[in-house]
Amino acid sequence: MAVVRTPRARWIEEGLRALSQGGPAAVRIESLAKRLGVSKGGFYGHFDDRSALLEEMLDVWEHRSTAEVIEGVERKGGDAMTKGRRAAALTFSDELLTIDLAVRDWARHERPVADRLRRVDERRMGYLRSLLAESCTDEGEVEARCLIAFSVAIGNRLIDVDHGARSRAEVLDSISGWLFTP
Known about the structure:
The protein is an all-alpha fold. The protein is built from eight helices and no strands.
């Protein structure tokens, strides 16, 4: 009778969950096996070591954060503002943002992770530049708007302030409207 192994994707998903909750130090083979309800022996049928798992986790995060987001946005179409809002919503969804923030923290300590993060951010910014260029012809202004949009998308969840009579969603909607207005 064949032994059923825990699929590779489940190890990666559980690794991403651990990363988002506790950083790279929380991605331990023993802990993941326990969370999956399996022995750690199955891990080595998929990965050579923990480093191989971490690398694949970064591959999955990168693909989801860039290629999948851009493909999803383009598939649904729309004008630049609609695409920009959709891209932000997908890129910085609750699921991806927690991983993104953990990767950003990790990148402060490990150069290869920082290089990967830079590649991801460059791809995201490149896509945003192409969208904003549809409504703004000044390259300097496009760059400023891109940086503001990106900073708001990441920093928004890290800032806890009251907006008076306006909700956070209303303020973000105003920012988005401004960014995509010629």
